[in-house]
Specification:
Residues 1-11 have a biased composition (Basic and acidic residues). Residues 1-31 are annotated as: Disordered. The protein is an alpha+beta fold. The chain has one domain (21-107). It has helices at 39-51, 75-88; strands at 21-24, 27-30, 57-59, 64-70, 92-98, 101-107. A hairpin with a 2-residue loop joins β5 and β6.
Amino acid sequence: MTDSPDGDRPGRTGLPDGVETTPVAGIPVPTTCADRVDPAAVRAAVAAVEEHGVREFWVSPSGGLKCRVGSRRPDRVQRSLRDALAAAGHGVTDHGVRRGFRRLRVDLTD
C-alpha cells in the first residue's frame, strides 16, 4: 500500500509518492515505523487535529504525526491544539513557523 491523497478524509497527505505504508488506526503509517507506533496515540492525535480543524497531517517515517496549522489562528487556539496533542502522544515539538504555517510534531512511538 502506498500513501496518496485521499479526498474522503483529510490528513492523508505529506509523504512522497512511493513510500510504503501500513494502516495503523485507519491512518497510513510508513512501514518503516509501523511496528513502533502506538495505535492509541495515533487515534488520540488524529482526533485532536480533526477537532481543531487541521486538514493537513501525516505520520513521518520516524514515527511522528506532523501537522501544519495556519499561523494566523489565534494563539489560544494554537495552545489548545498543542496541549491536546501533548496529551495524545508521547511528547509534542513545535518546529516554529514557516511559509505561514506553524509546524507541530507529536511522537507516536512508545
